[in-house]
Sequence to fold (269 residues):
Amino acid sequence: MNSITALSGWMSPRNPQQPKRLTGLCASGSRYLARVVPTKPFRARNSRPIVSFTFDDVPNSALTNGARILDRHGIRGTFYVAPGTCGLQDEHWTVIDRGGVATLANSGHEVGCHTYSHVKVQTLTRSELARETKRCFESLRAICGSAPSKNFAYPFGNVSFPHKFQLDRQFTSCRSIYTGLNSGLIDLAMLRSIELYDRTSTEESINAVLDQAIATNAWVIFYTHDVAPGPSWIGCSPGHLEMAVKAVKARGIDCLAVDEALTAIGVRA
Fold:
């Protein structure tokens, strides 16, 4: 048994000796395993490349600017909401309120889960994580008037290996912030993505990603946070989002919300 296999087994959800919380070097190793070891492998069967536009935390500007741009182009987006933060002000923005979440759902956009209180899932015990996701799902259902999406995005982008097992059984997909395209044999519990930030992506880099997606028949998942004229360091300007949308449309690539994209690659609900 090699060291990774041994560590994987030790941290299995079935191992009763697993500690409640992982710290230090062990926590780092656990996050590494979660990133590189597929726990929900799936062979994508899409016939064409796909692009999804996703928004984490969902600041007000993701609704007033982001959703508006997608609506103008006839595109559904996926908005990962932590309902316990709705209406709160943080250092960068005001988070969308419950009425805004309802507006997104009523406009046809997908509302996904992002835990209830936007917490690093690897810091939680298994029971705490179960409560977070249950409360998130129930709150979103109450806001939207119907069952929310079974798609999840990891707050802060990563997860421990045991909690990845736990979440991949509860959700159809879990999206990370690890850079990459999704093609061929993918991990539905660790979907790769491309950040759409003014400070890190350019028209040239976005075009290169889209050209690679066409060459490899890949699913590209763009993600950002706020969509504001003076965006935060993890956001984009309306012009930047508009540029990316137009680049996708110019290539004739299908723009689908995550739930639609999963159907297109052959995942059954």
Notes: The first strand starts at residue 41 and ends at 43. The two ends are 36 Å apart (CA to CA).
